[in-house]
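User: Is it possible to get a 3D structure for a protein together with its bound compound? The compound here is zinc ion. I've pasted both below.
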Amino acid sequence: MSYPPSGPGKTAPKLYQDFLVFDPLNAGKSNVLADFSPPVGEGVQLAPAIGSCKHDYTTKQSQSITPPLDLRPDGTTHYKLATICKKCRVHAGVRVNYARSTNPCPNSEHPLHHFRRVRAEDVGTQERVEFGWQCSAPQCRASLRVTYRPSRIQPEQKDLLTNTELLKRRYEAILQQEPTREGIRQATPLDCLSRLRKYIKDSLKPEHDKRVFPANNKRFMEAFGVHGHDCQELLQWLGFKYAVSSQNNVLLPWISLIEEAGARANVDAAKPAASRRPVAG
Ligand SMILES: [Zn+2]
Ligand SMILES: [Zn+2]
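Assistant: Yes, that's possible. Here is the predicted structure of the complex:
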C-alpha cells in the first residue's frame, strides 16, 4: 500500500464516536464513519441517517484481544475488538495492527492517533463491509480496520423460529404423532431461541460430551418440529448434521461441528455451512 494516505483524517476519539453512531444497515447517502464533515461553518456536518440504530454494543470477549493496561505496542502488536449490537444484531469489529510502527502513538509529537482513510483496503460484499484506515504519524502508521457483518439469523429464519402459529402447529404435530407421550407443551418464541442458543453453545464447548442428541427429544421437537424437520434447512446451515441411527431405524442426532469450535474463532461470521468440514460421516 502506498504511504502516506492523503486527505483529511480523524483522531482516535472522533473515530470512536463515529463508530458508535454509524449504522451500516442504514447508511444513507453520507457515511458518518467513513466520510468527513467539512470544517465547522463551511457546510453541513455529517450525522447518522434518520432511523439509524442507536446501537447497544456488547463485547465478544472470546473473539477480542484488548490492550493490557499501559502496554506499549511494538511492531508485533495487534489488537482486535469484536462486538455485537444487542438491538440490530449487527456484528462490528475493530482491528489495529502496528506492523509498520517504529514509534507508535502516543508519543511527544503525536499524543493521539490520527487516522486517514485507505480506501484501497475497503471491502464491500453481502457478508462483510470493511473500512481501511492508517495513522498519519510517520513513525506510527498503525493500520486500522473497521468491519461490519449482518445478523447471522435473517428475518425469514427468525420468523421460522418465533412465529407462534408455526410453534402451535409443531406442538399439534407432535401430539398427532405421539398422542400418548406426556409432558409435551407448546414452545414460546423465547423457548425456541433459548434452546437453539443452548444447542449451539453446548456444541461449541470442546469439553462437552453431548455431541449428539436424539432428534425425538421433546424440547427439541417443540421448538423445531417433529424430529426437527421444520427447521432442518436452518439447522444444517448453522452446521448441525442430521443422521439416522442403525438401531431400529430410529432417527438420531443432530451432530454439532464441535471440533471446529476452537479454530472457528468467529462463530458469528456469516460463513456458509457448506464450507465447513463435518466431524463425523
Ligand atoms: Zn444496532
Ligand atoms: Zn498513531
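The two ends are 45 Å apart (CA to CA). The longest strand covers residues 78-85.
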